[in-house]
Amino acid sequence: MGKFSSAFFAGLTVIASLLISLVVFDGLFRVYETWYIKPKEEPQAGFARLDDLNYNEDNVSVVRPADQLRILYFGDSFAFGITTPPFTPAGQTQSLLQNVSKTADTTAAQIINLGEPTVSFAQYDESLKHWTSKLEWDGAVFSIYTGNDTLDPVSGIIPDNAPRNFFMRDQPANIKTGAKRLQGVEAYFPFRMFDFVRFLYTRAKEGNVLLGNRPAGYNLLASEKPDPLFNAILADEARAMSPAYQPQLIPSFVDLIHFAQDVGTLGKTKDVVVLLAPSRLMLSPTLAAQAATQAGISDLDPELPLYLIWKTFAVVVPHIPVLNLKPDFEQAQHAGASLFYPKDIHPTIEGNTVIAHRLADYIANAWLHTPLAPVQTGPAPAETPQRLAVFQTVIAPLISPSSQSDVSM
To answer: CA 86, 74, 143, 159: dihedral to nearest 10 degrees?
Structure first.
């Protein structure tokens, strides 16, 4: 019995020692992962590691090259794009501006895509504050998707206190190439090092690239949604277009006002412009009617979010130019362009081209004074009595007198 007890306790000691060693080693490994594998938000060695952070962009230098006009392009998945970098709105705008010079010493434009999927006004504001303080830049573009940006902050889609770029930074593959990423190793086991062993094994067995059935020029986000999911997405957007639903969106409007104020502050010393991108429901009465029926909405006004966001900027920061892209999409749609990916809310390459032409025309005219086409910021969304009443009762009371112009205009 004594020998058995001794052997038993000796075995327990060995097991305990192994477990303690495993815990210590795993702790050290987690520290190593944090410091040497996980991408860093702060620029490293003079570069912002945007590719490592899984933005739809390459790594860029902190210092703007002397011969370059540098524009930061902020927004959500509409800005991020479901295409590869050359075909995003930022990429296509950059191509259109390549031969437009700001001065004799400026020969090229660089549009840096800082779009982040699954974000809204509070995250736009956080990204604005971060990247405008880390990178040298000349101008900034703020793309707002009017389909769900007022809805997402109160729907639970965006986690409270979500870190910057939270949706993309830990994805298991590079969004542009499909290459599997050490920075995005998924968690399966209590011990993190076992997750890496599993990752290396499956990569060796299955290959280093996540393959997807995507057309050329599109990234891993491009996908046709199953009908139930696509219909649910549109029904959610329909709720954001209901006048009766707007009081429930007050937290979003508070974020919108703060964001507009910070954009306004930037716009006092720098070139900035805001883009208002339309929803599919604004361009398709058939889809809008179907979404309203599914959502149980009888007062659908597809252009209401567009109007409310435009009106907020007009009242809070009237000096900031706002481009309404809905007429551009309507014109392209009437000409037969395929503007949205099938069973998805994001623009195709053609849809991004519409955005890029409007933006490039504006930048060339207003910032570079080298016209590509006549400049315009309108037309403003139509102001109906009902829309104005919603603004005056829901949003206007949230605006402090010091930042408010004339809410009755």
So the answer is: 120
Torsion sign across C-alpha atoms 283, 287, 290, 294: negative
| 79, 111 Cβ separation under 8 angstroms | no
Q: Which fold has domain 47-172+210-403?
A: Rossmann fold (3.40.50)
The reported pTM is 0.89
Q: For residues 323 and 359, what is the distance between their CA atoms, to the nearest angstrom?
A: 8
How many residues would you count in the chain? 409
User: pLDDT tens digit string along 80-133?
Assistant: 999 999 999 999 999 999 877 555 455 578 999 999 999 999 999 999 999 999
Give dist(CA 103, CA 209) in Å, integer. 43
Task: Name the nearest CA neighbour of 357 among 323, 392, 401.
Answer: 323
Q: Which residues pair with 73 in a beta bridge?
A: 113, 141
CA angle in degrees (0–180, nearest 5) for 363-366-136: 60
Q: Where are the domains of the chain?
A: 47-172+210-403
The pLDDT of residue 376 is: 59
Q: Is 220:167 a contact under the CB 8 Å cutoff?
A: no
Provide the pLDDT for residue 50.
93
* Sequence-distant (≥ 6) Cβ neighbours of residue 19 within 8 angstroms: none
Q: Which residues of 38-52 are buried (b: 16+ CB within 10 A; e: fewer)?
A: bbebebeeeebbbbb
Q: Alpha helix (H) ranges present in 33-179?
A: 77-80, 89-96, 121-134, 152-155, 166-169
The residues, ordered by sequence, that sit 6+ positions from 403 with a Cβ below 8 Å of its Cβ are 257, 261, 316, 317
Q: Smallest Cα–Cα separation from 383: which of 314, 333, 317?
A: 314
Tokens of 220: 């891993």
Amino acid at 171: Q
Cα–Cα distance between 152 and 266 in angstroms, integer? 25
Could you tell me which residues come within 8 angstroms of residue 364 by beta carbon, excluding any fewer than 6 positions away? 97, 100, 370, 371, 372, 373
> In 10 A of CB 393, how many CB atoms?
12
Whole-angstrom CA distances from 204 to 172, 180, 184, 197, 208 are 15, 11, 16, 11, 7
Q: Token pair of 321, please? A: 């130019």
d(CA 69, CA 63) in angstroms, rounded, equals 12
Kindly report the number of other CB atoms within 10 A of residue 65's CB atom. 13
pLDDT at 409: 41
On whether the CB atoms of residues 245 and 300 are closer than 8 A, the answer is no
Tell me if 303 sits within 8 A of 170, measured CB to CB.
no
Tell me which DSSP letter residue 184 carries.
Answer: G
